[in-house]
Amino acid sequence: MIDKRVSSVEEALAGLGDGAAVMFGGFGGAGLAVNLIRALAALPAKDLTVISNSVRFLEDYGPALFEQKRVKHAVASAARSRGSASGISELQLQDGTLTLDISPQGSFAERIRAGGAGIPAFYTPTSVGTPVAEGKEHREFGGKMCVLETALTADFTLMRAERADRYGNLSFRGTQMNFGKEMAAAAKCTVVEVTQILDDLLPTAEIHVPGAYVQRVIQLADGRDV
Amino acid sequence: MSYTPLSRNQIAWRAAQDLEDGMIVNLGLGMPVLCANYRPEGREVLLQSENGVLGVGPVAQGEEADRDLTDAGSQLITLIPGASVFSSAESFAMIRGGHIDVTLLGGFEVASNGDLANWDADMPGKGPLIGGAMDLAVGAREVRIMMQHTTKAGGPRLLEKCRYKLTAPACVNRVYTDLAVVEVTLTGFLVREVLKGLSREELQAKTGAMLKFADDCGVLKPPAL
Question: Looking at this predicted complex, what is its ipTM?
Answer without folding.
Answer: 0.97
